[in-house]
Amino acid sequence: MNATMPGDHDADAVIVGAGIAGLVAARELVASGVRVIVLEKGRGLGGRMATRRLGTAVCDHGAQFFTVRGRAFGTLVREAHDAGAVVEWCDGFTRATANGSGMLPPGDGHPRWRGTAGMTGLPKHLAAELDPACGEIRMAAKVTSLGVEGVDVIVSLEDGNRLRAAAAIVSSPVPQSLDLMEAGGMMPNAIDPDALRTLRAIDYDPCFTLMLVLDRQSLVPSPGGIQFEAEGPANGPIAWLADNQQKGISSVPSLTIHATAAFSREHFETPPDAVTELLLEAVAPWIDGPLASAVVERSLHRWKFAQPTTAVTEPLVAASTRPPIVCCGDAFGGAKVEGAASSGLAAARWVVRVLAGEA
Ligand SMILES: Cc1cc2nc3c(=O)[nH]c(=O)nc-3n(C[C@H](O)[C@H](O)[C@H](O)COP(=O)(O)OP(=O)(O)OC[C@H]3O[C@@H](n4cnc5c(N)ncnc54)[C@H](O)[C@@H]3O)c2cc1C
């Protein structure tokens, strides 16, 4: 299909965000002959599929692994696997109470996947596969507003640039997407009222991530991840603990610690040093010896929109049909990495249909 539109469009479709949803959407649009520009405010691809270096260590500090259930995502993961971008990590993790008592062995038989060199592997693979003749990704390109002019979408960027397109896919966390549409003057008349009600009801939990580099191996059992019991008053501040060396992405011992949603909400405005101390205290049982000597480097990250608490059952929400503007990501149709990827795919297919006059 050739959906290229006449006129002075910079692209047929603009995509806000180069997380997994935005990149899957870009791939699908390009495959359908739609010219795409992806705008990403960050310096790295992948959004919450994030990997970073800390000294000589490598830490995944957003999503830790992903599972594969649907056929479309399975095909994509298989291709990425064949290209060397992702590998199977294990078939489950140790489950534990906060103090490490009552540990259950890992393994429920369902494969957990990871990026070969870190979780950004899958997004980087998708970006590398994008045909440059039809798809462009602009990094450090922060969108400040998204509005409508006639039947066109107008996207403004922090650097003063403005893009005109026939359609937009907005994959940023929903509260941020609403801010962009508000700044673009879409409220209330240019946005479908039912869509607005649905979008406004979507909320996210925050999450603190503490990354540590150790001078010795950790006490985290094989295969390198512990999922802590569901939150409750008796439990501590940790939801997840990973050993990035056992995971196979770091050449030196390093840990990734995710705080629970309850702890992260309670301490969202607490000074970072105090949050770090609380999480260090809680992780001490998995570090052999005094923390002062074992921990050689530390870094705390605060995710404001870590995981949706209210998810919409549909895989996308159309804010507008003329021009097509659609919100997607992990808040739609199923959370987590696979849910976000499926939502990006559904959003792209919807845009293709609308541009072709079929929806
Ligand atoms: C701490 C943590 C742990 C997690 N653990 C897991 C896990 O183990 N397994 C799992 O499956 N999932 C996990 N998740 C969830 C998973 O990471 C997400 O569901 C998924 O990555 C979301 O993808 P997305 O494309 O919808 O959004 P994002 O990855 O958030 O992508 C949105 C992109 O939009 C960009 N953006 C935002 N605003 C603008 C703007 N104004 N202009 C330009 N760009 C913009 C952002 O920079 C970002 O790159 C975890 C998430 C977190 C935070």
What do these coordinates show?
The protein has 359 residues and is α/β, with parallel strands linked by helices. The chain folds into two domains: 161 residues, FAD/NAD(P)-binding domain (3-Layer(bba) Sandwich); 144 residues, Polyamine Oxidase, Chain A, domain 2. 27% of the residues lie in helices and 30% in strands. The protein has ten helices and 18 strands. The strands form four sheets. Strands 1, 2, 8, 9, 10, 11, 17 and 18 form an eight-stranded mixed beta sheet that branches. Strand 9 and strand 10 form a beta hairpin. Helix 1 runs parallel beside helix 3 and helix 1 packs parallel to helix 10. 49% of the residues are buried. It binds flavin-adenine dinucleotide (FAD). Flavin-adenine dinucleotide binds next to helix 1, helix 4, strand 12, strand 16 and helix 10.
Helix content: 25-40%
Order of helices and strands: EHEEEHEEEHEEEEHHEEEHEHHHEEEH
For the record, the CATH class of the largest domain is Alpha Beta
How does the major sheet shape up?
Answer: 8 strands, mixed
Give Rg in angstroms: 21 Å
Instruction: Classify the secondary structure makeup into a structural class.
Output: alpha/beta
Number of strands: 18
Strand content: 25-35%
Shape: globular
Number of helices: 10
Oligomeric assembly = single chain
Uncertain segments:
1-6
The molecules bound to the chains, other than polymers, are: flavin-adenine dinucleotide
The named CATH superfamily of the largest domain: FAD/NAD(P)-binding domain
The assigned CATH architecture of the largest domain is: 3-Layer(bba) Sandwich
Number of domains: 2
Mean pLDDT: 94
Calculate the terminal CA-CA distance, rounded to whole Å. Answer: 15 Å
